[in-house]
């Protein structure tokens, strides 16, 4: 039996699929937040911090690449794209929050206030969303450079990565449409032979 496309599923099956997808997305965000809040971040700011930051950016790119490949072959590419955003975006934001936290701990005057984990995450989200309330602002040159880098990275993520994800969804939808409607494979019919005759 072949798998049915999303639009061929019963309303109940669709609802279960959407709920499962949203639960996976929520679990992904929850795990990333648990790691962030439990990761030991009391080491001094050094070359290892920047190597870890670079590796984190590479891991983000790898996750996006893996997710795009998954979207292209998925039977439900739109739901898969939601999962991609739910795993990739928090990963990127938490990477910047971790680095801001390390800068603040190593040089307390780097921001208008000393950052805790929630403060660093809050600052990261306000920079990414371009809200910029101004209650926390970078003061040191290093903090300002990293903030500018996050702004540029945010623009790239919103523009380029969103375009890539949307393109992957469109490719998967076109692939599914070209396959035609899903059909059930008929059970094999056995021909009677001489032993079946009574």
Automatic annotation (TrEMBL):
Task: Please provide the Gene Ontology terms (biological process) for this protein.
Answer: monoatomic ion transmembrane transport
* Extent of Basic and acidic residues compositional bias: 187-198
Q: Where is the region Disordered?
A: 177-198
* Bilayer-crossing regions: 21-39, 51-69, 81-100, 149-169
Which keywords fit this entry according to its UniProt record? Ion channel, Ion transport, Membrane, Transmembrane, Transmembrane helix, Transport
Where does the Potassium channel domain lie? 92-167
Could you tell me which Pfam families the record lists for this protein? Answer: Ion_trans_2
Residues annotated as signal peptide: none
Protein name, per record:
Potassium channel family protein
């Amino acid at each position: 039996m072949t798998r049915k496309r999303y639009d061929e599923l019963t309303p109940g099956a669709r609802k279960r699929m959407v709920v499962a997808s949203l639960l996976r997305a929520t679990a992904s965000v929850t795990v990333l937040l648990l790691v962030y809040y439990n990761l030991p971040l009391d080491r001094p700011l050094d070359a290892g911090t920047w190597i870890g930051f670079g590796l984190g950016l590479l891991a983000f790119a790898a996750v996006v690449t893996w997710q795009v490949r998954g979207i292209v072959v998925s039977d439900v590419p739109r739901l898969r794209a939601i999962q991609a955003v739910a795993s990739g975006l928090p990963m990127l934001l938490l990477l910047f929050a971790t680095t801001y936290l390390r800068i603040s701990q190593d040089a307390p005057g780097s921001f208008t206030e000393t950052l805790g984990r929630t403060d660093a995450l809050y600052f990261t989200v306000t920079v990414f969303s371009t809200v910029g309330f101004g209650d926390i602002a970078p003061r040191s040159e290093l903090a300002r450079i990293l903030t500018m880098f996050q702004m540029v990275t945010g623009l790239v993520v919103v523009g380029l990565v969103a375009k890539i994800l949307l393109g992957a969804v469109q490719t998967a939808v076109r692939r599914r449409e070209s396959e035609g409607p899903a059909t059930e494979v008929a059970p094999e019919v056995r021909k009677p032979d001489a032993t079946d005759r009574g």
